[in-house]
Design the sequence.
């Protein structure tokens, strides 16, 4: 497990508004939900290569601004078409009012997996 990266104060995250941050080499979309939980997913949509940080939050899902695909902020799964591939999820912890994100996602991004070039 990699060291967690401090990306923001909890109070800097506006509820329901995605924030784009860089964690390691990855663009990450961080969202604070109405219940106070904070989630992080890879910012690139797996359908249209659009930034999810420009999308809209609805409940525990985020919508891609290009074609309207929704992804779960909990597990990264696509919940509506046209997306069919999940986005990677990053583990989040809150310590002393700071948001910390694991730079290693739960899975490789399906469009950016370096192993596909071997």
Sequence:
């Amino acid at each position: 497990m990699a060291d967690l990266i401090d990306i923001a104060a909890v109070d800097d995250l506006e509820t329901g508004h995605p924030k784009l941050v860089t964690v390691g080499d990855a663009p990450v979309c961080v969202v604070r939900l109405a219940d106070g939980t904070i989630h992080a997913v890879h910012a690139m949509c797996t359908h249209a290569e659009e930034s999810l940080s420009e999308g809209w939050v609805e409940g525990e899902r985020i919508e891609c601004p290009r074609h309207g695909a929704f992804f779960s902020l909990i597990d990264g799964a696509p919940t509506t078409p046209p997306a069919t591939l999940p986005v990677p999820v990053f583990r989040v912890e809150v310590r002393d009012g700071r948001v910390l994100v694991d730079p290693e996602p739960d899975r490789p991004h399906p469009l950016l997996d370096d192993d596909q070039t071997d």
